[in-house]
What does this fold into?
Amino acid sequence: MAIRVHKPGEAISLWRPFRDLEEYDWYLNDMMGSPYNSPLSWQIPRDKNWMPAVELIEKPAKYLVKIELPGMKEEGIDISLSGSYLIIRGEKKRESEVVEDECCRSEFVYGNFYRSVPIPAVVDSDKIEANYRNGVLEVNIPKIKAKQPKKIKVTPKK
It folds into this structure.
């Protein structure tokens, strides 16, 4: 392999080892009429299942799990603790029926969802609380306080 010296004024380009494959994929999709390259790509049917975004925050005395569930009602959300996993599931339904001929574009996602969030420590399952406000579900999971080591005094034997 020869080392080439860069000359001033010469353009430097990034090395992209898969550039040829990307270009081939683009040309093939363009030739075959792939809907993913089309300006109307939003018309691709979406999967009925979706996954809401989740945040897991650790605080000194508890874990706080936040889940984005916009447009849902409290009745449609099911929360359970199974082992060391917090399980959130439900279904987001359309509130009114939309006639397909009247809908020009829809990017809303409807259907079932299921999230399993691993909780990294032993928690008090009897004191878990959940609040839902402004499309965000907050689940407060208190930690079980670890027992402090007990100091044992050694006494001499008489």
Helices lie at 19-32. The chain is about 10% helix and 30% strand. The longest strand covers residues 85-92. The radius of gyration is 27 Å.
